[in-house]
Amino acid sequence: MKSSVSIVRCQTYDEGKVLDALRRSIDLLGGIHSFIKRGDRVLLKPNLLYGRSPEKAVTTHPSIVRGMVQMVQEAGGIPSIGDSPSIGSLIKTAEKAGIKAVADKMGCPLVEFDKPVLPPKRGGKIFKQLEIDQTVLDADVVINLPKFKTHGLTLLTLGVKNLFGCIPGSRKMLWHLKAGEDRKVFAQILMDIYEIIQPSLTILDGITGMEGNGPNSGRPIPLGLILASGDALSLDQIVCDLLGISRKSLITNRVAFERGTIKDEIDVLGEKVRGAKISDFQFPTLSQPDWNIPRFLRKALRNALASKPVIEEERCNACNRCEESCPPKALNRKEKGLVFDYGKCIRCFCCLEACPEGAISIKSGWALKLLDRRHQRVGN
Ligand code: SF4
Ligand code: SF4
């Protein structure tokens, strides 16, 4: 089976220029009418992880959301914008991210994902009880609007990972707990969600991306790119090509290869991969080595291999959001400050995602550092 991914350049978040770039990227895939029919209920799912201003590159930029709302309305669709932020309400998060102003101006409702239901199609390979939000299942068309960012658990957060937000609020914690420290189990959950939702269209906001300590505290980096595809998995693979890393470096891609759900052939339209390559991109420190180590050995070498969250006390404002977001309650405020119980910690890095001050970072275990150096010399 074949799929297509379009790559279009756009260096600015000027609303008119972004709209032009969105039109070009979707026209290359056959035009908006190939995805939306008049009267369709169209759910736009941006990355609204956390309430930060658009310049921080934590959330999908409001110009992208605005452009897509306009295109959906022009095509006769009925748009809404929905997500389930990691901390705080959708309205407050969208307000800070500049998306509420867009929604109000365009007459487009904001919908908080807070109605977990079991989907009628329960194809989950690992867990059969994966609850998705009712709003997502009710939509005729889902348009996925991820941000191009790094992620300490999954390396990058792109098209497939963005759909994790379709699991309502506290249920996300539960799935982190179930996946435990195993990145591959977490990737299996992400792939299950992707296979249930199957968004019709994915548009990646790569005008400004995030490198380093993502998904919340990394550095914004101008990339000048918008990618679009009817197949989020193909889009994620093309991003790996742009970054010059193996497609299987992204653990969700690897799981998809194993499941045989990956498309055999991907047509790249618009810019060529060769001409749009991204150099000197800083990847995050990963929570675990990215190669196969037998489970028994992994357990024995747990602390030496696994990375762990650490705190920079001088940046901490004592808001306690990290504590609230920790699924196994492995983080507690004591007299001397915040203390991690690494025996309980499942290395999900929800605390890092939740911290508004970038006070939590990932520290590699000593064996992981050694193996990483060796791995870098050998290459991907
Ligand atoms: S301390 Fe942080 S990384 Fe560890 S389990 Fe809690 S939220 Fe996850
Ligand atoms: S580490 Fe971050 S999230 Fe935790 S209390 Fe400090 S500022 Fe708040």
Your description of this structure?
- With 380 residues, this protein is α/β, with parallel strands linked by helices.
- It folds into 2 domains: 2-276, 3-Layer(aba) Sandwich (Rossmann fold); 295-378, 2-Layer Sandwich (Alpha-Beta Plaits).
- 34% of the residues lie in helices and 22% in strands.
- The chain has 15 helices and 16 strands.
- The protein has helices at 15-27, 62-74, 90-96, 99-106, 134-138, 159-162, 171-179, 183-197, 232-243, 251-259, 295-300, 302-305, 321-325, 350-354, 366-378; strands spanning 2-9, 41-46, 78-83, 110-112, 116-117, 132-133, 141-145, 147-151, 155-157, 201-211, 219-229, 265-270, 308-311, 331-334, 337-340, 360-363.
- Strands 1, 2, 3, 4, 7, 8, 9, 10, 11 and 12 form a 10-stranded mixed β-sheet that branches. Strands 5-6 form a two-stranded antiparallel sheet. Strands 13-16 form a two-stranded antiparallel sheet.
- Strand 2, helix 2 (62-74) and strand 3 (78-83) form a beta-alpha-beta unit.
- Helix 2 runs parallel beside helix 4 and helix 8 (183-197) crosses helix 10.
- The structure holds iron/sulfur cluster (SF4) (2 copies).
- One iron/sulfur cluster (SF4) binds next to helix 14.
